[in-house]
C-alpha cells in the first residue's frame, strides 16, 4: 500500500493548464506560490492551488523548490521558443500531407523535452513526422492529440455569459456532460444555447445540475396531471428563475402558477 505524504493540488503553467496532486519534498509551500515540479526526468513550473493535502505518494510528481525570478524569466522565453517550434511542426506536417491542426506547445525548464498539442477530426499516423521533428530539433518529443474542449481551454475566449471560460479558471478537470442534464433542467434543446465555445455541451450544465435537482425535488414531473384551486391541468414545464410552473388547463387555456400551489405527488410529505 502506498504511503500517504503531504501533497498539494497544483496547476501547471502550461497551455493545457492541467491540475493534479504533487508531493512536497523539502518543505511545504502556500497556495498562490509558483514552484518547480519534477516529473519523469523533466522539470516544470506549477502554481499551488491547495496545500497541504494528504495523498498517496505513489507515482506522483515532486515539488522540489520554490520558483525564482530567473525560473519565471526562463519559462517566458521557453514559451516563445515553443511557439516557434510549433510553426516548424506545422510546416513539416503540411509537407507530409497530414490533417493536423497544431494548437500550442511547451518545453520543460531544461529544454530537453517538447510536447506539441494538436487536434484532428480523425486519428493520425504521425510516426514519420515524430521521427523527423525529433531528429531536426534534437529533443525528446511528444505529440498529443486533444479534443475540442481542450482546444477551447488552450486558446481561451469568453463564454456566452461574458466571463472567461470556466475550464481556464476554476475547473480542475473536464468531465463528460451528458445531454440528460439539459433534459433534467428543462432547457430548450437548442445547440446554439446549450453549446460552449468548444462546440460541446456547456460545463455549467454539470455543476449547476444539483441546484436544479434540489429546487424541483418533490414537484410533479412534466406531463403529470395536477389539480389546483379546483382546476385540472397538465404540467408543461418549470421556469426555474421565476419559481413558476407552466400548466395547460383542461379548458384549453395555459398559465403560470407558483410552485407552492402545486399539489405534491402521492407519497410526498
Write the layout of secondary structure elements.
Layout: E1 4-12, E2 19-24, E3 34-39, E4 42-56, E5 61-66, H1 69-95, E6 101-107, E7 113-119, H2 127-137, E8 140-145, H3 148-155, H4 180-184, H5 191-194, H6 204-207, H7 209-216, E9 225-228, E10 231-239, E11 244-249, E12 254-258
Parallel strand pairs: 2-5, 7-8
Antiparallel strand pairs: 1-2, 1-4, 3-4, 3-5, 6-7, 9-10, 10-11, 11-12
Helix pairs in contact: 1-2
Describe this structure in words.
- With 269 residues, the chain is an alpha+beta fold.
- The strands form three sheets. A five-stranded mixed β-barrel has the order 1-2-5-3-4. A four-stranded antiparallel beta sheet has the order 9-10-11-12, with no helix packed on it.
- It is elongated and about 80 Å long.
- It has four domains: 4-67, no CATH class; 71-146, GMP Synthetase, Chain A, domain 3; 161-211, no CATH class; 225-261, no CATH class.
- Helix 1 (69-95) packs across helix 2.
- The protein has helices at 69-95, 127-137, 148-155, 180-184, 191-194, 204-207, 209-216, and strands spanning 4-12, 19-24, 34-39, 42-56, 61-66, 101-107, 113-119, 140-145, 225-228, 231-239, 244-249, 254-258.
- 25% of the residues lie in helices and 32% in strands.
Quick rundown:
The protein is of the alpha+beta class and 269 residues long. Helix content is 25%, strand content 32%.
- Average pLDDT works out at 86
Major sheet, described briefly? Answer: 5 strands, mixed, barrel
What is the fold-level CATH name, i.e. the topology of the largest domain?
A: GMP Synthetase, Chain A, domain 3
Computed CA radius of gyration, to the nearest angstrom: 26 Å
Distance between the termini: 47 Å
Q: Spans of 5+ residues with little confidence (pLDDT < 50)?
A: 265-269
- CATH architecture field of the largest domain: 2-Layer Sandwich
- The H-and-E topology, N to C, reads as EEEEEHEEHEHHHHHEEEE
Question: What order do the strands of the largest sheet run in, or round the barrel if closed?
Answer: 1-2-5-3-4
Number of separate domains = 4
The total count of strands amounts to 12
Shape: elongated
- Number of helical elements: 7
Helical/strand content category = alpha+beta
CATH class of the largest domain: Alpha Beta
Helix content: 10-25%
In percent, how much strand structure appears in the residues?
25-35%
